[in-house]
Amino acid sequence: MSSSKTLMDLFQPAKRLKLSTSSDNSKLIQSISPKSLIAASDSDGTSTVTPQQKSRIEFNKFLAKSKRNLKICNQRVSKSKAEGVGYVKLEELLVEETWLEALTGELQKPYAKQLCEFVEKEICNGGVPIYPPQHLLFNALNSTPFDRVKAVILGQDPYHGPGQAMGLSFSVPEGVKLPSSLLNIFKELHQDVGCSIPSHGNLERWAVQGVLLLNTVLTVRNHQPNSHAKKGWEPFTDAVIKTISRKREGVVFLLWGNSAREKSRLIDETKHHILKAAHPSGLSANRGFFGCRHFSQTNQILDKMGISPIDWQL
Questions:
Q1: pTM attached to this predicted model
Q2: Where's the active site on this chain (predicted)?
Q3: Which of 12, 43, 101, 220 qualifies as a FRET site for 131, CA 20 to 30 Å off?
Q4: Which entry of 9, 24, 42, 157 is annotated as an active-site residue?
């Protein structure tokens, strides 16, 4: 997660641009900075900036913001360990300002305080590891600002194997074997919009573009799926969904499987767009996920609203 090469492809469909180091990222931002854009104007004042350049500028802006949020969380976790505390309070790990404003007071409610106490005890237990790592608990919200959300892909709880969970639904870090659900997602992407199947499962690039990759439960015990279900995460993530529904318009919700589809009751369908399909797991992908064409449909919906589409290619 810490390497910027996990977010390397930008928005040129033919020749893609790679960000392999932070210095590369800095050079790219400088090369398409506002000053350079002004200089690119024609003599009559008409801008020659291409849509691809504008997309790259926007991408890099939110890439930098995501990395800043991650750095803050890492620093807070490191500080707590150095002080011998062992954990960071949940409210200190949600650092994205737009979500803090949108969810004002949510983590101070009675249920959230009980949830915080539960998670802290699980982390300090020391016996069974908890996933994802502390600094990634709110990775979905810290990576996709509230006012940036274009689409939401709901998962259930994090992957429960070592090194898999990274706080983004369905996503795994580079170098980790693709789970079957994610591989099926990539297969549908290939059939739907022609994306090549990537060699890794890191979906950060989607998050930075405005795809909120939200699990309904944000923590799990090692090799114990659903072990943190009904401990307080569901009211919190329900609040996230309801806040998007109430305060935003035109967001596309991709609801795969019965658990995700059940969340449609939280969404105002007069303001938003809901796409439903079977879960992409190996057990159900052939029962309605393959062929759902949700990725192309999402971009068609965004395009009709005048919103830049998602570049799904990793």
A1: 0.85
A2: 157
A3: 101
A4: 157
